[in-house]
Amino acid sequence: MALSEQEILRREALTELRNLGIEPYPAAEFITTAYSSEILADFEKFEGKEVILAGRLMGKRIMGKASFAELKDAEGRIQIYVSRDDISTDEEKTMYNVVFKKLLDIGDFIGVRGTVFKTQVGEISVHIYGLTVLAKALKPLPIVKTDADGKTHDAFSDPEQRYRRRYVDLTVNDHVKETFIKRTKMFNAMRSFFNDKGYLEVETPVLQPIPGGAAARPFITHHNSLDIPLYMRIANELYLKRLIVGGFDGVYEFSKNFRNEGMDRTHNPEFTAMEIYVAYKDYNWMMNFTENLLEHCAIAVNGTSDATFGEHQINFKAPYARVTMTDSIKHFTGFDISGKSEAELFEAARGMGIDVDASMGKGKLIDEIFGAKCEGNYIQPTFITDYPKEMSPLCKQHRDNPDLTERFELMVCGKEVANAYSELNDPIDQRERFEEQLRLAEKGDDEATQFIDEDFLRALEYGMPPTSGLGIGMDRLIMYLTNNASIQEVLLFPQMRPEKKQVQIELLDEEKLILALLQTNENKMDLGVLKIKSELSGKKWDAAMKGLAKHGMVKVSLDGENKMVELV
Q1: Of the candidates 238, 209, 234, the residue with the CA atom closest to the CA atom of residue 219
Q2: Residue 53 pairs with which residues in a beta bridge?
């Protein structure tokens, strides 16, 4: 792998440090006594006191016998003042003149000891008298600059590079780190909300013999010792309900789920869901529980129930509007789905310009109508309730209408954030629903469940109390709470396509000469003039030009009557 000039210089500095007896990667613990944020927030407490800090060197302003630098630690940035005579004890002043000025680069980790003061212009700083090299960075960081007007220059902003090199993104883009701090705050807030109510956090299998609890394409692997196929978890619902059968009143899990499906701005093949199941409750209770939960999480993350998402201002304060799916479709399309046959729904959907096909059953057709004509209209948190039975194979039949189920989805900014049921606990009804799903799958519905979990049915036959369950897409929720339109922005390491390997091209001396001549002439020259200036023989000229063209580095074009050579 060819090294850049910067990388070569940093490796040379690494060697020089060792030659001076300084280990660039010391093993000993380095104990700190403060963070930059603490000093900046409470200067009076720290003024004149000794502090020990550690972090990355993010800038240097050399000014002769004294210099200023910027140190970035885990919680922010602070200016340090470095005086030659304070950090150097030998006559040559090696630590300042050589180590600090010449061998330390932007991105290196250092530890400093000094006292807190304010400069003449009032900037809180640390006057250091101890400097320790903690880790030498061999690759240069992008240098992001902000001018006097607050405009950013040379930003590290290319999304693909940011996601692939999240470690660089977190270092140079301070707002990115804040997103992930807020993500953790949301998880902690939700966990404490459940724990305070006495519900138990549990763990269920990631490798499962049957991909149950949702309709999705699973990742498949093979267990060598058992010689059986296993599936990466697509949902944890059926395992959590087994625990309700076993006698727990309330269980929840933050689960990593995996679905071998498409990737876009709102979907990643690996994602985090939270599911909770509470015995002796129904979906009406769960609606109240959900809106109070999300208000609690919004305040924990942002200090307020209000959130900004793009052009929208969202208010997570309870209570939320409640609209039945039937009323929603009637409101936005004028069509009443009540009592309609599959054929009538098919024709209605097609008449609305919705792409439908013969594999779609009643539930799928209603889902397509709602998704195309209604869903996007719900910006503020809204519960859509009472879904058709065909759409909800694990949900209890509605107590007042046998064609519907006791289910809701919470919509925010036109997308589903939460899904909840009065859980189906009749094992005979559950088996019939599973069998109907198999019939739909055989008909070609790729969203129908293709497996019957006999062990889950056996568990239900032992008896499950009335239960309500809730699932929340954690990644999507934090997108709304941090104003990020892409799921990749809220995942530390989102799934990416394989990185294209850069092919290193070894150029001949003659090819390098031609490139150098072009670069000194604004990357374009008359072919005849370039040939004369190169002073190459005809044979070497032809070989060099063919080589550069083959590598896609130059092209020849006509400019009037002249042939021009141009860098690509």
Answers
A1: 234
A2: 112
d(CA 353, CA 441) in angstroms, rounded, equals: 25
Q: Which tokens belong to 414?
A: 């036109």
In this structure, the number of other CB atoms found within 10 A of the CB of residue 116 comes to 21
CA–CA separation, 77 and 88 (whole Å): 24
Which positions ≥6 away from 125 have C-beta within 8 Å? 68, 78, 79, 80, 81, 116, 117, 118, 119
Tracing tokens 């010792």 back to the chain, one arrives at: 225
Residue 300 DSSP class = H
Residues listed for the chain: 568
- Contacts of residue 452, defined as CB under 8 A and 6 or more positions apart, other chains included, come to 431, 434, 435, 438
| Axis crossing angle, helix 362-373 with helix 325-333, rounded to the nearest 10 | 60
Structure tokens at 454: 């006999």
* The two three-digit tokens of residue 116, written as one number: 């807190």
Whether the upstream peptide bond of residue 319 has omega within 30° of 0, thus cis, is: yes
Contact criterion met (CB below 8 Å) for 65 and 85: yes
How many whole angstroms separate alpha carbon 255 and alpha carbon 150?
Answer: 41
The string of pLDDT tens digits covering residues 489-505 is 999 999 998 887 766 67
Tell me which residue of 407, 409, 410, 390 sits closest to 399, measured CA to CA: 407
Please answer whether residues 96 and 130 qualify as being in contact, where contact means their C-beta atoms are separated by less than 8 angstroms.
Answer: no
Whole-angstrom distance, CA of residue 219 vs CA of residue 259:
6
pLDDT tens digits, one per residue of 173-215: 999 999 999 999 999 999 999 999 999 999 999 999 999 888 7
Nearest residue to 466 via CA among 199, 238, 239, 249: 249
Q: Are strands 124-135 and 76-83 parallel, antiparallel or unpaired?
A: parallel
Q: What is the DSSP letter of 210?
A: S
Q: Which two tokens stand for residue 521?
A: 């002439």
